[in-house]
Every structure is written in structure tokens, then in C-alpha cells.
Amino acid sequence: MGGIFSQLGQLFVQSAPTVIFVFLLLVILNRIFFRPIIAVLKQREEMTSGALDRAREQTAQAEAKSHEYESAFQAARQEVYRQREADRQAAIKLREAALQNAREESEEWIHQAQRELAAQAEAVKNELAAASHLMAQEIVQTVLGDGRE
């Protein structure tokens, strides 16, 4: 068994430079290659997650603005409806006032026409009374005679 240990010892001594070389290569690759790549990957991940966070914030802000604009649009629509209703009510009041004015004028014209008609009827009655009185005198004179016959 002593021969196996001596062979193993020789192999270990012969392989020591290779192990040291592999260890140095690992250290060099780690410092030159793997650390910068890992740092770049971490930076890239941070930038990506930061961009995603900013995108989420901007999306939230856009949604808030959208809700704000929708609220403002709804308020403006309500104001337009309120103004239309106020204008409609004002137009109804104007129309009612015009109708009332027209009613009053027509009633005044009717009363005026009735007064004129009553005055004309009275004048015709007076004329008829005067004419009938004259006619009655003529009839009386004709029947009784003048005394001139």
C-alpha cells in the first residue's frame, strides 16, 4: 500500500501546478470577466425594474388624469344640461308672457268692439226711434188729414 501512496504523492506534486493554474485562471476570470458581467446584469435589472416602476407610476397618473378629465367632462355636460333647462324655462316664461299679453290685448279689443257695437246699437235705436216718431206723425197726418182737403 505504500506504493499507492507514493504514486498518489507524485501525482499530487505533478498536478499541483495545474491546480494552481486552474485556481489562478478562476480568480482572473472572476475578476476580469464574471464580476463585470454580473455588475452589468444587476445594473440592467435595476434599470429594467426602475423603468417598470416608472411605467406603473405613469400609468397610474394617466388613469388619475383620465378620471379627472372624465369628471370634468361630466360636470361640463351637467352644466350644459342645466343651462339648457334654464334657457328652456326662460323661453317658456317669455312665451307665457307673450300669450298673456296677447290675451289681454285681445280682451281689450273685444271689450272695445263690444262698446263700439253697443254705441252703434244705441245710435241705431235712437235713429229708429226718431224715424218711427216721424213716421208716426206722417201716419197721423195722413189719417187725420191736414184739414186741407
Descriptive report:
The chain is mostly helical and 149 residues long. 96% of the residues lie in helices and 0% in strands. It has one helix and no strands. The protein has one helix at 2-144. The chain is rod-shaped and about 200 Å long.
Any descriptors?
149 residues, rod-shaped, mainly alpha
Which H/E pattern describes the elements? H
Question: What's the gyration radius in Å?
Answer: 62 Å
Question: How many H/I helical runs?
Answer: 1
**Number of DSSP strands?**
0
Give the termini separation: 204 Å
Structural class: mainly alpha
Task: Report on the biggest sheet.
Answer: none
Topology:
Layout: H1 2-144
Compact description:
The protein is mainly α. The protein contains 1 helix and no strands.
